[in-house]
Amino acid sequence: MCSSSPSAGRSPRTRAAAVRACLPVVSAVLAAGLTAGLAACGAARQATLPQTPATTETGSTGSASAAPGPGVPTSTAEVEVDRSGTEPAVVTGVRFAAHDGYDRLVVDLKGGIPGYSVNWVDEFVQDGSGKPMGVRGGAYLQLTLFPANAHDEDGEPTWSGGPVYAAGLANLADVVRTGDFEGRVGIGLALDRRAAFQVTEHRSPNRLVLDVAH
Q1: Rounded to whole angstroms, how far apart are CA atoms 149 and 155?
Q2: How many other CB atoms are found less than 10 A from the CB of residue 207?
Q3: CA 141, CA 146: separation in Å to the nearest integer?
Q4: Is 0.70 surpassed by the pTM of this model?
Q5: Where is pLDDT greater, at 70 or 55?
């Protein structure tokens, strides 16, 4: 270690030797200090910026409300898919069930998936005669399949029961068979309230699914 005693009384050669002996120690101290300083600067530059706090959507009433989950309908726009020239599909049954955030209607089909339309209407009427069916609800959604039938070649119904099927779900109150006439099958959804909906096509087996939000 370099001595800290005074240099008085030493010869110039002795003092030069002492200085040379101290140089490695001084260099080591300076290097250690510089390294520590650079390390501290590097840590400051790599510090992670604070994340933006998550926000919660708030409804018009002021209470917190979660965004719709996956699969929950978000649009009330009417839909029409045209598949003219295809062989008529046969409706073999209609099912419905409640799900988290929406009610689901499933139309079971034999054959391909036909064209279809989904429209808001003022009331349900019988296809052909146009006679009101007297089904009550807060909103009326009409699903029409074309070309399609709900009977076999002998004229026997392939979708039995009805014409009104009580559903009693969160929004879907009743399902109504509005007609099976001239290659068109009408299915009415009597709702408690107007709400968003979506239509999806499923295969193997073929079926048309209509979801209506609660």
Answers
A1: 10
A2: 19
A3: 17
A4: no
A5: 70
